[in-house]
Write a structure and sequence with these properties.
The chain is mainly alpha-helical and 83 residues long. It is built from three helices and no strands.
């Protein structure tokens, strides 16, 4: 493994930095850490549940389509007197 491969792996494994913009008030570092922890946990939980279905859902046409009539009974023949 080369040094370039190692740096790419380290960059991919490193967590992304979080930018917090404070618009009013003067929160303590502990309060900011708590907010970041709660938001990160909520995001992780939501992202874990947002997995696409593997099977495609049936179309609206397939759900609403129905048979126009009962299948033909082939044993009867063409007319009433077929026999």
């Amino acid at each position: 493994m080369s040094a370039a491969d190692t740096s790419v792996d380290a960059a991919a494994a490193a967590p992304a930095t979080v930018r917090v913009e404070i618009r009013s008030g003067d929160p303590t570092p502990e309060e900011l850490a708590a907010v970041v922890a709660v938001v990160t946990e909520a995001y992780t939980h939501e992202a874990a549940g947002a997995i696409a279905d593997t099977e495609p859902r049936p179309s609206a046409w397939r759900i609403s389509a129905r048979s126009l009539r009962a299948p033909l009974r082939r044993e009867i023949g063409w007319g009433r007197f077929g026999g």
